[in-house]
Amino acid sequence: MIRHGSWDDFDAAAALSGNAELLRWRWGVPSFDPSRHLWIADGAFGALYAPDEAAVRGNAAHVPALLERIEEQARAEAFSQLMFVIPEWDEPAWRAYEQAGFSLTTEVLEMEIVFDGPPHDPSPPAGVALRAYTDADAHAVRGLLDDAYVGWDKTYVPFTHDDWLAFMTDHDSFDPACWFLAEAGGKLAGVCLTWKEGWIKDLAVLPSARGQGLGELLLRHAFARLFERGVQRVGLKVDAANPTSALRLYERVGMQVVKRYRSYVKKL
Description:
It is a single chain. The chain contains nine helices and twelve strands. 34% of the residues are buried. 32% of the residues lie in helices and 31% in strands.
């Protein structure tokens, strides 16, 4: 039996996901409606999250049937694709996605650094200024991220602005003092958006501003500011096929791979 979900299913879904705060965060975006985007099975649930995520948690035996419901709704809402990132060690789950027509597109690496002392904190070069995020920066930051990612990631689907703003700021891990912006010539050129606990959600530089060291400058600046706040460990995820030298940058500053994931996509 598979049925449509409701807000009353949150506790059961949170128990299956293992992370109630993350689930509350995902369900809190304006576009999510459990009556249309949540399905409940015995020991599993499936959810459709804009702009393109098909998430199934719990008993892998229910993955095909739940993905069928998710895809049907996604097509009804004119989604262009569905994607999901699955831990490499969860073979039953990714095998089930493959059987449902999803294709492996890339490997995602989780990397981290543990500080044994204050990290190097370089000064910005002439003409570059670093500052913290303000509410007035929201549209410019989202636009920069879209411009940075769409240029190389052929599976990237942008959020609507309202969903992006809720997803990125409407939770306890967000602190505007931990979102770092780089301006070159008075214009926004790069961002390093971190959760205050020590997670780098986005590091992006405009294509026109790459090759000038802004990514490393932002990353090291974020390390230093987080360390000042008592953070000893910082992590992130990176597409192993990222052509912007991101992986080499993370290795150069001392980050190491600690987990591997598989990214699956199905075009609709």
